[in-house]
Structure formats: structure tokens, C-alpha cells
Amino acid sequence: MLTIAPKDMGWIEVICGPMFSGKSEELIRRLRRAEIAKQNVAIFKPLIDDRYATSHIVSHSAQRLPSISVSSTAEILEKARDAQVVGIDEAQFFDTDLVDVCQQLADRGKRVIVAGLDQDYRGKPFEPIPQLLAVAEYITKTLAICVRCGNPAGRTQRLSKDAERVIVGAADLYEARCRFCHTVYDDEGE
Ligand code: ADP
Ligand code: ZN
Which among 23, 114, 149, 158 is least buried, having the fewest CB atoms inside 10 angstroms? Predict the structure, then answer.
């Protein structure tokens, strides 16, 4: 990915894809390696995401790293002041202010790594990830495995018929599906 590593400047990396595609695993892998390199790492997640530990980012495969839960993007700016590397998980739960915050952090010379859903449960672009993709230097799209047919899965299937955009849940509420197997109940009048 990084063929020529940036020198004396910051940048933005985005890791996006559906649920269960390994975004958190990949974020944790990159942040662990930065810690091994003795870089000052600050890790954030939104307060809304309390599915597992409130003090860690956690993958579905139970890997974890200590993190700070924040209720606003302004808090990230403030608490990342001394960090060389900034990790942000579950970015879809922040508002579009996150784009400006990531830009400011990168402008200050930091490596910013953001992971989040790129589509909502209907398969529609999920802010602020599309906007972050536009301004990022490096982009990784992760795919899961469709639980119906085994194909690469880019979508997140909601298993309930609720129509709110944000409902926090894991394997009990969502599963990975390919575009063929993905359905949106209310679009079909079911
Ligand atoms: P994300 O952050 O994208 O939701 P995680 O990094 O938390 O993904 O979890 C990825 C892990 O989820 C995989 O390594 C695998 O162990 C598990 N997993 C469960 N269901 C699936 C699936 N349908 N496709 C791929 N991985 C899955
Ligand atoms: Zn499928």
C-alpha cells in the first residue's frame, strides 16, 4: 500500500466496508504495529457504540485495543494533541465534522487511520465515510463473506424490519451479504 512512505507530513488512511469484513481487525493490526514502533498512538471510538467494552475497540474475532470513547469530534482534536498516530473506529457514528477534524490532524503531521461502514443497511453511502474517501491519501475496502451464498459481501443486511438508520447491534441484528442476496424490506413492501 504505502510504496513511498510520507516523510515529515501527515496523511489520512480509510478502511471501509460492511460489518464483519475485518475493518476493526485491520485497524487494530495497523495501530499495534505503530505501538511496536514506539509511536505515540491515540485511539478513539464514538460513545454510542457500547456493544462490547466501553474502553476498547474490539473486533468480531475478539481482538482488542484500549481506546477513548468520545461524544464529539472536537474531543478527538483535543485528546489527540500529542499523538503521532490517531486511530478512529466506527466512524459512521460521527457527523461530517469528522472530515474536518481528520484533515486538521493530518495537516498537523499526524497519521490518521479511520475505519467505518461505507454503506448503511440499505446499501446507501453512509456519511462521513464517502467524504473521507474523497480526501484520504490511502483507501482500503474490505469485503466480508456473504452468509447466504459465500460470495464476497459488500453489504450489511439488517435482520429486523426497523427503518432507523442507526441501530447498534452485532450478529443478532446484522449479517454480511453480497449485492445479490441483500434485501431491504421496506423497498419491497414486505
Ligand atoms: P468489522 O470491523 O468490519 O465489523 P471485524 O474486524 O470486527 O469486522 O471482524 C472480522 C471477523 O469477523 C473475521 O475475521 C471473522 O472472524 C468474523 N466473521 C464473522 N462473520 C463473518 C463473515 N460473514 N464474513 C467474514 N468474516 C466474518
Ligand atoms: Zn450472496
Answer: 149
